[in-house]
Amino acid sequence: MNTHYDVIIAGAGPGGSTCALTLKQSGLKVLMLEKETFPRDKICGDAVSSTAKRVLRQINPELEKELLQFERKTNITKAKLYSPTFESLEIEFPHVGHCIRRIDFDNWLFNKALTNPTLEVIQNTSLKNVTTDDKTATAITHNGEQFTAKIIVGCDGAHSIVAKKLAHFKVDRKHYSGATRQYYRNIKGLEGNALEVYFLKGFLPGYFWIFPLSNNEANVGFGMLSSTIADKKIDLKKSMHQIINDIPEVAERFKDAEALEDIKGFGLPLGSKKHTISGNRFMLCGDAASLIDPFSGEGIETAMESGKFAAEQIMRSFTQDAFSANDLKQYDERVYKKMWDNFQNHHLLQRLLGDRVWLINTLIKVGNIPYIKKKIPTIFY
Ligand SMILES: Cc1cc2nc3c(=O)[nH]c(=O)nc-3n(C[C@H](O)[C@H](O)[C@H](O)COP(=O)(O)OP(=O)(O)OC[C@H]3O[C@@H](n4cnc5c(N)ncnc54)[C@H](O)[C@@H]3O)c2cc1C
After folding, report:
1. For residue 39, what pLDDT is reported?
2. Which alpha helices (H) appear in the chain, and where do they start and end?
3. C-alpha of residue 158 to centroid of ligand 1, in Å
4. Ligand 1 mean position to 197 CA, how many Å?
5. 42 C-alpha vs ligand 1 centroid, how far in Å?
6. Is the ipTM of this complex over 0.90?
7. Which atom of ligand 1 is found nearest the CA of 52?
8. Quick one: which atom of ligand 1 is closest to the CA of 126?
9. What digits encode the pLDDT tens for the residues 221-258?
10. CATH fold of the domain at 7-76+95-171+270-350
């Protein structure tokens, strides 16, 4: 087996697979190391936004067309926001998004990455350590194998080894969320084309969601800022159980529903704080770079877009033999130029709403005024 490559990508989720796919025409020898074996699940809300489709389209318009052929998906045209008094506000999306189980979506994208003829993938192998010097990046796996490359891209998710070892990231709970997920079948009154988001008294700041999947199934979850979880000693799984069973308006919907799994939880590194996301011979993408939208919790699209940007930076770096921290700064600039305004606005919204029941009630009322309702999508898109 080879041990020297041009590029090593750690992690084959949306960030890593998009990076590998974008490098398809580059001719560069790429190694992708993945801890799990595909198809693999990822705890998520499964909402794939229209921006993710735009990234696919930019790589190759055929990819978007193929995604639209997915059978196990729903077409999402709106969000329904519920206030603590259960008044609702419907927001029509300017472009159709989808809900696709991550086990399907990620496996599809991973298989697209495999069409890169100069890509080698080693699955079921964890990156344990990573170092860089003037000439190489070295990846060391859990079973002691060593691989070297000119550059390494950390797409290894919320618990990224690359971010920890090379960028010295630490969890900052004010810029990190925790969330749970449980798949259900047969929830009453499920609209197949609407993301349902509930701001519930006693469970703020945070939101509960019901996202429709194919086959009358749904992705149900609850998320909160980690600083609140720690301060108030909240047990997210218990809270989600209470929401589903004890809040009458919700419980009624779940009366005949069947849980398809136990409640599972995972972390969300939010984009509300700027980080240095590259350095000498490395770049970080997606969750490894903390690029999740601080209000909506969406991170698939930003993982894909940053994966694409990283690949494009790699191609530039190879033509110029330029891999230093200074050379790779352009990557940070490009990522934040694209995403930072959005992150800041959505962070402001997250902080403004907080646990202010009266404000959420008022905003949802005001949002129903036709003129304002028309303007709302422009805040989010
Ligand atoms: C409960 C919850 C709900 C969410 N809902 C949504 C939503 O509805 N829509 C949305 O857009 N986003 C959502 N997100 C965020 C979204 O899941 C992430 O932002 C997205 O998965 C980021 O993609 P990624 O490629 O950066 O990381 P990941 O998808 O986490 O992929 C990382 C990959 O790296 C692998 N890996 C990890 N460590 C190592 C290692 N040491 N060595 C090798 N491989 C490794 C993993 O196995 C994985 O395959 C949600 C997150 C949570 C937790």
Report:
1. 98
2. 14-22, 50-59, 61-68, 102-113, 161-166, 226-231, 236-246, 248-254, 300-320, 325-353, 357-367, 370-380
3. 7
4. 21
5. 6
6. yes
7. 11
8. 42
9. 999 999 999 999 999 999 999 999 999 999 999 999 99
10. FAD/NAD(P)-binding domain (3.50.50)
